[in-house]
Structure formats: C-alpha cells, structure tokens
C-alpha cells in the first residue's frame, strides 16, 4: 500500500486511464508483439504516448469502434497482441456484438480498454456515462473483466492482462482519483485484495469505489466504533469466490460498492456467489437503475450517493 | 438414375473420389480448368448431402461458390493441408459464414480431413458447426456467422501480416447482402487507408438474400463503384468460369498500394437446376426427393 490513512488531505491523485497509457508505453519495449489501436480518442484514452514512441505499432481507426475491434481480432490471429482503446461506452456498448463474436467466441488474445466509464466521466453526461459495461462484459463466456482502483493498479492490471492469453476487458476512469497503491503492490487476476480486516460488516468494492468505501470505513470506525472489512475486488471475472465466502462467514452483513448500475454489475456478481453458498445479508450500493447526467464529478458522486460521506451516511442509516 | 443417387454413400471412396484423387496427384499448374470444374462438382455433391443430412443449413450460396472455392484451393492459395498453422500460408477468411458447407467440403477435398467426417455437419459436438468456428475447427482462420464482421477481420489480418513482414496474402469471401452492414464499409475505409495490397476481398454477387432479391430488399447500388470510391481496385468476373476466376485472383496479386475486390457474378444454387436463382434455397435444406434429384443432376456432370 502507498497510504495508511485514506482520509489524509495530501493523497496524490491520478487517473486509471493514465496508468493504462503509461503501462502501454512501458510494455512497448518489453513486448514487440504489442500493438495499440484507437478510435479517434488517443489523447483521452492516453494511448498517444505509445503512439509517439512506437508509431509503427499504433493504428487509428477513426470513429469506428466496431471496425477497430474487428481489426483487433484479425491482428490477434497473426500473433500480435492488440490493445483496443476507446471510451467504455463505445468499446463495450457500441461494439458489443463484435467483442462477443469476433473476439471472445474465437478466444482471441485482444485487450479491450474502456476509459471514461461510469458517472465520473462528468460533464459530458449520460450519453457517454456507461453504467452497464460490467454487466455486458461479464456475461460473455470466458471473458476476464478487470476494474482497477487506482493508477498503479491500472498500470499493473495492463501488464497482467497482456501476460494473460485471451480477451480481457479493463474498465478505466477519466478523473484523477486517490493513489492508494504503490507500483510494487502485487496484482493477481482473480485475487481480491484485502485492504483491512474488520468485524461484523464487510465493504466489497471495485474501481473508484475502493478508496471511497475505505474512507467511509474509516469514518465509521472513528465516529461509530465499527471497523468494517474493506476488500478491493479489482477482478469482476473470474470473481474471487473463496474470499467472498471466507469473509461472509465472519460478518453479519456485506455491502458492495460500484460506480455502475446495481443490476448485473459487481454487486450482482457477489450476490450470486453468496446466495448459492452462504446467504448473508447483502446491500448493493451503486447507481440505482437510473441514467447519469452532466455535472462536476464531486457533485455527481454526492448526487448518486457514491461519495465516501454519502456511503457513511447510508451505512449508518441502514444499521 | 434415380436409384443410383438414392443408394449412394456420398462420402465413401467411390468412382468420383478416384477421379478427384487422380487430379490431386497433379502439380497445381497442370490442373486444367475442366478438372477444377470436376472438383467443384464433387464439392457440390458434398454440400447437397451435408445440408440434407443435417436437415438444416444454407445450400444456395454454398453451391454458388463451389467453382470459386475449388479454384482457390487447387489453383490460387498457397497452403498446406498437413500443416494448417504454417506461417507463410495464405489466409482464406470466410465472412458470410452461413455458406460454410462449401468451405468444409472444399477443405475435405483438398485433404484437410476425411470426407466421411462431413456427415456430422451441424450435429452436436461436430467440427462442422452450423456457422464456422475456430473453437471446433482450428484449421479455419476465423469464426463467423454474424454478418459484416469478416472484412474487418481480414483487413486486420492483412495489417498484422504486413506489420510482421509476412508476405502471405489474405483472401476474404463476403456476400452482397453483407454489404448492407455498415461495418463492411468501415472496414473498406480502413483497408484502403492502410494500403493493404495483400488483401483480396471477393463478393458472392448473386443478388439474392434471405428475404428475396437484393434490389427489392435493400438496393446495393453500384457495388463496384462504391468499393472504387473507397480506394479499392475493383474487378468483375463470372464466378462460374474457372478461367475468369483464376485470372481475377491472379490480377489482384499484381496490384500495389491498395486492396482489391472481385465482384463474382454468381448464381445461387448453381449446378442444381431447381435451386438456381431461387431465393427459397438460401436457407432451406433439400428433402430426400430433392436430394436425389440434385445428386442425379450433379452425377451426370462427372
């Protein structure tokens, strides 16, 4: 871990999409098979660094996400490792059927990065704020789905994804968020990271909600004397069944936190495991089946009840 | 005649396979156009039987492509049935996956697998899925079925080969109906942008799709001009004239700086008179009587 106190005022912030861009640029030297594809958003998806460093291995497809994924499938069939890059809305939503039929079904070695996921895309509003991507990627057979919690985890997730043979979706965000891990923090696909042990209740989180829920947990400990477990599920699929069941046996209630619709996302994945194995009480916290809207990131996080302050209030009121 | 087809075990070694085996002994350059037609006829017999046995599938387009596939496997492609992963092999990509019976049959005749295996077409666990899948048949280059994705795949493959300085060519079979999918044109734009002269697309231009004549369902306009305006080299040829088919493919090898497309004018159901140009045979299997009739017609061509 990089930090001990999630409530500290001087935590450095960096976006997970920056971790993606940096990882590609660094991987470029190590792995000559890596090629990067973009669909006219290379400055936003942060692939421009790779593009400048390795122009012969960077391919822009213009505003045509399905075509980009289709080309990635073909490139992968020649032994290259394509990393496709676009906003999560278009990478998974617009191009879903290409992802399903041209990439996942033939099990091709393509990495799909979706940046600007969730409501924290901010001012652009609901047309771009995808809150369905976890649901629509995890339901594809054999897909790996990663949702990094901060910059270095995103960086390491990209390395792990490239290391792994087969399609991997990586959900990334637009804004700078708290850097809670350091570069050396181990990242293993499918293995949840226990940030703190606790008692009675557990906070299971993914992506940007890891640091928010950790903050809420600290508030709860300070103000109410309750110390929840805080666990980072950076891998939605394959989900860490063992950790879910183990912790469920030690607590009375589990909360899941995600910047995603509560239908079909991370909370749903946890509930599937719990209800089949050890049905403890579960509360899914996320977007409550509504579309997002324009606004500043902090305003949106408060409005949709996802900021640490709102999480804290919610948990206290639930008890 | 009827009795002959009635009893025939199509996939067994017989007088037809003997003829084919003698052709296969020849060097690629020595195989005559007439012999390619004989191979195409054998492929057609297999198609009819496969679709009949499965009692489902798409005979029309498959029959219409038999001459082109016979020419590809026996005249054009640089390939090795004993080493399907050979790095230098030309890639034949099938986009309109529903016509896969022609590909399975052509590959069997070319020696990729035993003809007898074709009888499992469309059955549980078969290598020969209803739409082609590399999971079940790794000898294929791609999985398809959902229309309009193959040209992107092929263009990506051509880009990947070029990037790795591999001189193999990429051939991709697309249908005219598929040109109604927007993604086909996204791919056409990209292949031209990246100057993929190692890519040859060919259109099964039979002017028929599942709901009827293409002009009635959704007019394609001037397909050749459309590809040309996207920066492609365009050739039009008769998809049942072996000489024209061979020449068209060979011409595309000489083009540099841009991809090529061949519009092969074809007849849906070619070789089986009652299926020819009849949209009803796009996706319906022949029953026993139709199968016998079809085989009798095809047998008479040997």
Task: Please describe the topology of this protein.
The complex is a heterodimer of chains A (319) and B (302).
Chain A: E1 13-14, H1 16-30, E2 34-38, H2 42-45, H3 48-53, E3 58-60, H4 65-77, E4 81-87, H5 88-94, H6 96-104, E5 111-115, H7 133-138, E6 144-146, H8 151-163, E7 168-171, E8 177-178, E9 193-196, E10 200-205, H9 209-224, E11 229-232, E12 235-237, H10 241-248, E13 251-261, H11 266-277, E14 281-287, H12 297-303, H13 308-318
Parallel strand pairs in A: 2-3, 2-4, 4-5, 5-7, 6-7, 10-11, 10-13, 13-14
Antiparallel strand pairs in A: 1-8, 6-12, 9-11
Chain B: H1 2-7, H2 15-24, H3 33-54, H4 59-64, H5 66-76, E1 91-94, H6 100-110, H7 150-163, E2 170-175, H8 182-193, E3 199-205, E4 208-209, E5 212-213, H9 214-217, H10 223-229, E6 233-238, H11 242-253, E7 260-265, H12 288-299
Parallel strand pairs in B: 1-2, 2-3, 3-7, 6-7
Antiparallel strand pairs in B: 4-5
Helix pairs in contact in B: 2-3, 3-5, 3-6, 3-12, 5-6, 5-11, 7-8
């Amino acid at each position: 871990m990089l930090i001990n106190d999630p409530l500290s005022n001087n935590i450095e912030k960096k976006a997970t999409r920056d971790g993606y861009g940096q990882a590609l640029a660094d991987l470029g030297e190590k792995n000559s098979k890596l090629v990067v594809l973009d669909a006219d958003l290379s400055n936003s998806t942060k692939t421009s660094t790779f593009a400048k460093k390795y122009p012969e291995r960077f391919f822009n497809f213009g505003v045509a996400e399905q075509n980009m994924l289709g080309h990635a499938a073909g490139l992968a069939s020649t032994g290259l490792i394509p990393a496709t890059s676009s906003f999560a809305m278009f990478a998974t939503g617009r191009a879903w059927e290409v992802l399903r039929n041209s990439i996942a079904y033939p099990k091709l070695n393509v990495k799909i990065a979706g940046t600007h996921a969730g409501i924290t895309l901010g001012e652009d509003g609901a047309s771009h704020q995808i809150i369905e991507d976890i649901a629509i990627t995890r339901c594809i057979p054999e897909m790996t789905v990663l949702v990094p919690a901060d910059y270095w985890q995103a960086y390491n997730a990209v390395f792990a994804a490239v290391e792994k043979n087969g399609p991997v979706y990586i959900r990334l965000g637009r804004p700078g968020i708290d850097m809670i891990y350091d570069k050396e923090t181990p990242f293993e696909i499918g293995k949840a990271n226990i940030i703190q042990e606790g008692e009675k209740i557990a906070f299971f989180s993914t992506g940007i909600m890891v640091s928010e829920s950790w903050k809420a947990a600290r508030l709860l400990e300070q103000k109410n004397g309750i110390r929840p477990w805080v666990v980072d599920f950076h891998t939605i699929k394959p989900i860490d069944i063992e950790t879910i069941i183990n912790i469920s046996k030690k607590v009375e209630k589990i909360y899941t936190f995600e910047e995603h619709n509560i239908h079909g996302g991370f909370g749903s994945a946890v509930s599937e495991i719990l209800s089949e194995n050890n049905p403890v009480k579960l509360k899914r916290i996320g977007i409550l089946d509504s579309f997002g809207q324009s606004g500043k990131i902090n305003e949106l996080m408060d409005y949709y009840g996802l900021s640490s302050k709102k999480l804290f209030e919610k948990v206290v009121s639930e008890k | 005649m009827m009795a002959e087809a009635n009893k025939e075990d199509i996939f067994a070694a017989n007088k037809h396979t003997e003829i084919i085996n003698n052709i296969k002994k020849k060097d690629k350059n020595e195989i005559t156009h007439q012999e390619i037609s004989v191979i195409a006829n054998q492929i057609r017999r297999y198609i009819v039987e496969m679709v009949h046995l499965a009692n489902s599938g798409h005979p029309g387009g498959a029959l219409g492509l038999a001459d082109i596939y016979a020419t590809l496997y026996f005249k054009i492609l640089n390939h090795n049935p004993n080493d399907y992963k050979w790095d230098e092999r030309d890639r034949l990509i099938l986009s309109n996956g529903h016509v896969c019976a022609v590909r399975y049959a052509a590959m069997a005749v070319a020696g990729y697998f035993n003809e007898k295996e074709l009888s499992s077409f469309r059955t549980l666990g078969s290598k020969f899925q209803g739409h082609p899948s590399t999971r079940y048949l790794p000898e294929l280059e791609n999985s398809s079925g959902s229309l309009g994705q193959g040209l992107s795949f092929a263009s990506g493959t051509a880009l990947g080969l070029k990037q790795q300085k591999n001189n193999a060519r990429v051939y991709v079979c697309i249908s005219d109906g598929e040109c109604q999918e927007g993604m086909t044109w996204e791919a056409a734009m990209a292949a031209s942008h990246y100057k993929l002269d190692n890519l040859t697309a060919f259109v099964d231009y039979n002017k028929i799709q599942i709901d009827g004549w293409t002009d009635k369902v959704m007019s394609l306009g001037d397909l050749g001009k459309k590809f040309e305006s996207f920066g492609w080299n365009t050739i039009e040829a008769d998809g049942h004239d072996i000489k024209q088919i061979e020449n068209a493919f060979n011409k595309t090898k000489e083009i540099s700086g841009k991809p090529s497309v061949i519009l092969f004018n074809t007849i849906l159901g070619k070789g089986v008179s009652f299926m020819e140009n009849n949209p009803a045979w796009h996706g319906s299997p022949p029953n026993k009587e139709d199968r016998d009739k079809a085989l009798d017609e095809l047998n008479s061509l040997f």
